[in-house]
Write a structure and sequence with these properties.
single chain, about 1000 residues, alpha/beta, 3-stranded antiparallel beta sheet, 46 helices, 16 strands, about 60% helix, disordered N terminus
Length: about 1000
C-alpha cells in the first residue's frame, strides 16, 4: 500500500536550526513548491523546479551533475547544461536556509530536513499507519488515514516540471496514488458504503478504463447496491475493452467475481455487521485550488480584498458586517481566479472551519445549477446524502443552517450572474464569500465590487521574468517589454507567451516579440497546450445576444484608442439611446470597457478578436464596409460643422465630399471645440484607417477641416503623419484630385510645424498638379502657402507675387475669409519692406472682413498682423492692445501655437519700449507654450529675444546660453538669422 518511492527522514547534522527545520516545507505532490512558515518561496523557472524536485526525491542522496543533466534534459542536453545546473543550484541556495542544499562530490543534495518537511514523506507515513490500523482491524482509522494521505495531493504530481526524470516520477507516484485509492475503496465496501462508492468508482473507471481492480470494485459495489445487471454489464464492457485494446482476457479475479455474481453467491453480500462508523463530527473542508507559485503584483487588490475578508471575523457589535461578500469582475484572462485563490489562501487563518470552492462554469454553455452546487457543498460540510433535500430553497436553507456558528470562506469562481450566486451565499456573521465573474454584479446586494484591470507594465514584466527566467529577460529587456505590450498586459496572454518561450530554449525573446508583432497572427500565437486567449474570449462572445454580438463585431473594426457614444451609434446605425444600452451591456460582460462617461474602448487583444469575428460572422462584407463608411461620414460631417463655426464665411465647407450619415450639431463654438479636441486621437486614427480607394477623398477632407488640431499644437505630430500618409496614398492610387488636396493639407501642416522648405515643396506640387475642378480653393490656399514660405525665407518679392495671385483667386471664388487671410499676410510683407502705413491699412482691412463674417479666431490672427504693423509704425500702445486682444482669443480657443507667437511678439514690443523684465517674462512663457510645437525656427526666434531681454536685466550668462542654443538651431536649419545671433555673441557686441 505504501509502494511509492520512500523518502526517509533526513536529520544529518548541519547548520539548519530546529526552528528553520520546522518552518521549511516542500511540496512535490502537485506543483513543486517551498514554504518558509506561511510564506511561499519562489522556486524559479520550470528547469529550476525540476532540479529541486530531482534532489528532493533522492531522499538525501547526492545526485551527480551528470545525473541531474540527464534528469532535466535526457540524452540531448543543451551545450550549456552544466552551467545551467550550477546557476539553478546557486539560485536555490539563495532562497533556502544555509545547509539545506549542499555541494558534494561534484554533485548536489538536499539535507537537514526535519520530520514533515516533504509532503511525499508525510503521505508515506500516513499510508504506513493506515496499513497498520487495517491489520489491527480498525478500518475506520485506516480509512481516515488514507483519506488524509490522498488529500495531500494537489493536482498533477510535479506539475509543469519538464524532463524525463519528472515524467518517470509522475507515472510512479500516480500509480501509487491509485493503489492507495483502491485500498480505501476496498475498505469502503468492507464497511458497507457501497452506495456511496458507486459514483466515485464510475468516474475512476472512466478515467482509467484498463485498470481491472477498479472495475472489480465497481462490480461489487453495484451488486451490493442491488444492481446485478449493471454489475454484469461492467464485466462485459471490461472484457470487450481488454480484447480490443490489449488482446487479452480479464484477469482471474475479475472472471471469478462475474461467476459469483451470476450464482448470487451469499458471501458477496454486504457484511452483516459492518464496523461502526465514528460519531459524526463537523467536517472541515479545504477545497481551495492551489495558488500559483509565480503570483505577481496586484498588491493593492490583495490588500483591499484581504481587508474586506478580515472584516467578516469581527463581531457585529464590533462594527463588522453580518457577512463579507466581494465580487471581482473583469475580462477573461485578466487573472480573477488567480487573484481570488491567492487572497483566499492568505485569509485561511481567519476561517478555521474550512473553505469551500466551486467553478460555476458561468462563461460556458451550461452553467452549474445552484441546487447541484449546494448538494456538493452540503456533502463537503458533512451532511449525509439522505439528509439533503431536493428543492433549491430547502437546500439553501439547510446550507445556511449548517454554516451557522461556523467561520467558513466560500469561493465562487466564474459565476454567470447574481441570480446564480445568491442561493450560494452564507447567511451568518463570521462567513465570507469571494465571487469572480466576467459580469459586474451590481445587482448583488451588499457586495464589495472590484473591477480587475490588466497588469501594470512593471507587474507584467515581473510575471514574464518569473516564468522565463531572469537571465533571458535581462539580456533582452526591450524585447521583453515588447512582448508584454503585445500581450496587452493581460496575465493569461503573458503566461502563455512566457510558457512557450520557456519551453523553447533555442528561441530568443526577440523571436517571440517578432511573432507577436503581427496583429493578424497574434491571437493564434497566444496559445499553449489547453490555454488559449482566443478560446477565453470565445466563451464570452458565445453568450452574447445577436444585437450585442453585432455591436461587438462592428465596433472592433474602428481604429483609435476609444470611441464615443455618438460615433458608435453611427457605426451601428442605431439611435443613441439604443446604442448606449447595447454598449453598457457589453461593459457588464467585460468585453468592452467604459473609458469615461460616454466613451468606450476595447482591450487590444479583444479588439483583434472582435475583428476576427467580424471577418468571420459579419456577412456579406458590405455590412462591414457600410459601418465604417458611416463612421467616416459622422466624423467628416461633424468636423465640418466645427470648421464652419470657427470660420464663418470660409468656402472650404462648400467643396467637401458629400456625406450620407449626419454629424452632430453644436450650440456654440466652444462646444464644437470641446468635441474636436475630445475626438482628436480617434479622429486622426480614422483618417489613417480610410486612406484607401473609395474613402480617400473623404479622409483628406476630414483632415482639412480638422486643421485646428495642428494649429493648436495639441496633436501636431499625429496630424502631420496622417497628412503625409494621405499624400502617399493618393499617389499610390493615381488619384489626381486627391493628390492636390492632400498636398495642400500637408503644406499647411509643414508650415505650422516650422518645416518651411517642405511646406513650399508640397504647395508647389499642388500648383503643378493643376486645377481641382471640384475644389478650386485648393489652388488658392496653395498660392497663399507659397507666399508665406517665401516670406519666412526672406524672398519678399516672390512672397508678394504669390499673395497677390492668391488674393485674386480667393476673390474669384467669392471666399472673403480667404481674402482676409491674404490681406493680413500682405500686411506683413509691407512691414518688412518699409511700407508701414499701408501695412496697417491692409491688416485693418483683414480684421474688418473677419469681424463682418463673425470669425473670432481668424479675427485674432488679423489683430496679430495688425499689432506687428502698429509696432513698425511706433504706435506701441495700440499694438499692445491688439496683441492682448488676440492673446485672449487664442487662449480661449486653445490655439497654443498662436498663443505662443503672440507672447513672442509682445516680448519684442517690450524690448522696443525698454521693458526688459516684462519682455523676459513674456518670452519665457512663449517658450513654455511652444514646447514641442511650431518648429525649431520659431523656437530660435523666441530664444534670441529672450537672450536680449535677459541681457537687459543684467543676466548676461543666461543670455549667452539662449543665443548659443538659438545659433545651433539656425545653423542646423541653414537660416540667415544665424548671422545676427553670431553678432550678439561676439565680444564687441552691444545689445
Amino acid at each position: 500500500m505504501d509502494g511509492g518511492p520512500r523518502v526517509p527522514e533526513q536529520r544529518r547534522p548541519g547548520s539548519v536550526t530546529v526552528a528553520e527545520q520546522e518552518a521549511l516545507r516542500f511540496g512535490v505532490l502537485g506543483p513543486v513548491r517551498a514554504w518558509r512558515g506561511e510564506e511561499q518561496l519562489s522556486t524559479g523557472s520550470p528547469q529550476q523546479r525540476a532540479l529541486l524536485a530531482a534532489l528532493l526525491l533522492r531522499a538525501g542522496r547526492t545526485a551527480t551533475a551528470a545525473e541531474l543533466i540527464d534528469a532535466l534534459w535526457g540524452p540531448e542536453p543543451p551545450s550549456q547544461a552544466l552551467a545551467a545546473v550550477r546557476t539553478y543550484a546557486s539560485r536555490l541556495r539563495k532562497i533556502l536556509p544555509p545547509g539545506v542544499l549542499v555541494s558534494e562530490s561534484g554533485g548536489y543534495a538536499v539535507r537537514s530536513l526535519g520530520e514533515g518537511t516533504l509532503d511525499l514523506a508525510v503521505a508515506q507515513d500516513l499510508a504506513a499507519d493506515a496499513e497498520k490500523a487495517r491489520a489491527a482491524g480498525d478500518l475506520c482509522r485506516a480509512r481516515d488515514l488514507l483519506n488524509q494521505a490522498l488529500g495531500i495531493w494537489d493536482g498533477e504530481v510535479l506539475a509543469g516540471v519538464p524532463g524525463p526524470y519528472a515524467e518517470t516520477q509522475r507515472v510512479r507516484l500516480e500509480e501509487w496514488r491509485l493503489g492507495l485509492l483502491e485500498s480505501r475503496l476496498d475498505m469502503d465496501l468492507e464497511q458497507g458504503c457501497h452506495v456511496e462508492a458507486v459514483s466515485e468508482l464510475t468516474a475512476l473507471t472512466a478515467a482509467h478504463p484498463l485498470r481491472e481492480r477498479l472495475r472489480e470494485l465497481l462490480m461489487l459495489a453495484l451488486y451490493r447496491s442491488g444492481r446485478q445487471a449493471e454489475a454484469l454489464a461492467v464485466y462485459a464492457d471490461t472484457r470487450r475493452l481488454l480484447a480490443e485494446e490489449l488482446g487479452v482476457d480479464p484477469r482471474p479475479g475479475l472472471r471469478d467475481l462475474q461467476q459469483r455474481i451470476l450464482q448470487a453467491d451469499p458471501a458477496l453480500a454486504e457484511p452483516s455487521s459492518p464496523a461502526a462508523e465514528p460519531a459524526m463530527v463537523p467536517v472541515r473542508p479545504a477545497q481551495l485550488p492551489a495558488s500559483v507559485p509565480d503570483f505577481t503584483g496586484r498588491t493593492s487588490f490583495v490588500s483591499e480584498l484581504s481587508e474586506v475578508l478580515s472584516s467578516a471575523s469581527e463581531s457585529p457589535d464590533a462594527g463588522g458586517p453580518v457577512m463579507a461578500v466581494s465580487a471581482l469582475a473583469g475580462i477573461g484572462g485578466v487573472g480573477k481566479t488567480t487573484l481570488a485563490v491567492h487572497v483566499a489562501h492568505r485569509a485561511r487563518g481567519a476561517f478555521p472551519d474550512g473553505q469551500l470552492y466551486m467553478d460555476l462554469q458561468g462563461a460556458g454553455p451550461r452553467p452549474a445549477e445552484p441546487e447541484t452546487v449546494l448538494g456538493s457543498f452540503l456533502r463537503a460540510l458533512g451532511t449525509a446524502d439522505s439528509a439533503i433535500p431536493d428543492s433549491l430553497d430547502d437546500r439553501a436553507a439547510l446550507y445556511r443552517s449548517v454554516l451557522d456558528g461556523r467561520r467558513v470562506l466560500v469561493l465562487l469562481d466564474n459565476a454567470k450572474d447574481a441570480a446564480q450566486v445568491r442561493p450560494l451565499l452564507p447567511g451568518t456573521e463570521g462567513c465570507a464569500a469571494l465571487v469572480t465573474s466576467r459580469v459586474r454584479m451590481v445587482d448583488l446586494a451588499g457586495a464589495h465590487l472590484v473591477d480587475l484591470d490588466v497588469m501594470s507594465p512593471d507587474e507584467a514584466l515581473a510575471l514574464f521574468t518569473k516564468i522565463v527566467g531572469e537571465e533571458r529577460v535581462a539580456a533582452e529587456r526591450e524585447a521583453a517589454l515588447d512582448v508584454v505590450a503585445a500581450c496587452g498586459f493581460l496575465p493569461l496572454a503573458i503566461r502563455i507567451a512566457a510558457s512557450r518561450l520557456a519551453a523553447r530554449r533555442t528561441w530568443t525573446v526577440s523571436v517571440l516579440a517578432a511573432k507577436l508583432a503581427d496583429g493578424r497572427r497574434r491571437l493564434d500565437e497566444l496559445q499553449a497546450g489547453d490555454l488559449a486567449v482566443k478560446a477565453t474570449f470565445e466563451l464570452g462572445y458565445g453568450q452574447l445576444e445577436p444585437a450585442q454580438a453585432r455591436a461587438f463585431r462592428l465596433l472592433g473594426l474602428a481604429d483609435g484608442p476609444d470611441i464615443s457614444l455618438a460615433a458608435a451609434a453611427a457605426v451601428l446605425d442605431l439611435p443613441t439611446e439604443e446604442t448606449e444600452d447595447l454598449l453598457e451591456s457589453l461593459v457588464d460582460t467585460s468585453l468592452l470597457e467604459s473609458a469615461a462617461p460616454g466613451r468606450y474602448r476595447f482591450h487590444d487583444l479583444v479588439r483583434l478578436y472582435a475583428r476576427a469575428c467580424a471577418e468571420r460572422d459579419e456577412q456579406p462584407p458590405s455590412e462591414r464596409e457600410a459601418a465604417m463608411s458611416r463612421l467616416l461620414d459622422f466624423y467628416l460631417a461633424t468636423a465640418a460643422q466645427v470648421y464652419a463655426m470657427e470660420r464663418p464665411g470660409d468656402r472650404v465647407v462648400d467643396h467637401l465630399q458629400s456625406t450620407e450619415y449626419p454629424g452632430l450639431g453644436f450650440e456654440d463654438r466652444h462646444g464644437a471645440q470641446d468635441w474636436l479636441y475630445a475626438e482628436a486621437v480617434s479622429l486622426l486614427a480614422c483618417v489613417r484607417q480610410f486612406a484607401g480607394p473609395g474613402t480617400l477623398l473623404r479622409a483628406i477632407d476630414l483632415l482639412w477641416v480638422a486643421v485646428d488640431l495642428t494649429e493648436s499644437g495639441a496633436n501636431s505630430r499625429e496630424y502631420d503623419a496622417a497628412a503625409l500618409a494621405l499624400l502617399d496614398a493618393a499617389r499610390a492610387c493615381g488619384d489626381r484630385r486627391a493628390e492636390v488636396r492632400a498636398a495642400v493639407v500637408l503644406a499647411n501642416a509643414h508650415q505650422l510645424s516650422g518645416r518651411f522648405a517642405e511646406a513650399d515643396d508640397a504647395a508647389r506640387q499642388a500648383l503643378e498638379l493643376g486645377e481641382a475642378p471640384d475644389h478650386p480653393l485648393a489652388r488658392c490656399w496653395a498660392e497663399n502657402c507659397r507666399g508665406a514660405m517665401a516670406f519666412y525665407q526672406r524672398r519678399y518679392t516672390d512672397a508678394e507675387k504669390h499673395f497677390k495671385q492668391a488674393l485674386a483667386d480667393f476673390r474669384d471664388c467669392g471666399d472673403r475669409a480667404g481674402e482676409a487671410s491674404v490681406l493680413c499676410n500682405l500686411s506683413r510683407i509691407h512691414v518688412v519692406t518699409g511700407r508701414p502705413r499701408s501695412a496697417v491699412e491692409l491688416a485693418q482691412q483683414g480684421v474688418d472682413m473677419y469681424e463682418t463674417l463673425g470669425h473670432a479666431v481668424k479675427s485674432a490672427n488679423g489683430r496679430y498682423a495688425l499689432g506687428m504693423a502698429l509696432t513698425q509704425n511706433g504706435r506701441h500702445v495700440e499694438a499692445t492692445e491688439r496683441f492682448q486682444q488676440a492673446l485672449q482669443v487664442f487662449r480661449e480657443s486653445r490655439q497654443r501655437l498662436w498663443e505662443g507667437m503672440t507672447l513672442f511678439r509682445l516680448a519684442e514690443l517690450d524690448l522696443e519700449t525698454q521693458r526688459h523684465a516684462q519682455a523676459s517674462a513674456n518670452a519665457e512663457t512663449a517658450l513654455t507654450v511652444l514646447r514641442g510645437i511650431g518648429g525649431e525656427w520659431r523656437r530660435g526666434n523666441v530664444l534670441t529675444v529672450l537672450g536680449r531681454a535677459l541681457h537687459g536685466i543684467g543676466q548676461s550668462g543666461r543670455a549667452h546660453v539662449c543665443w548659443q542654443e538659438a545659433l545651433s538651431l539656425y545653423e542646423a536649419l541653414g537660416s540667415p538669422e544665424a548671422d545676427a545671433v553670431r553678432a550678439l555673441l561676439s565680444p564687441a557686441a552691444t545689445v
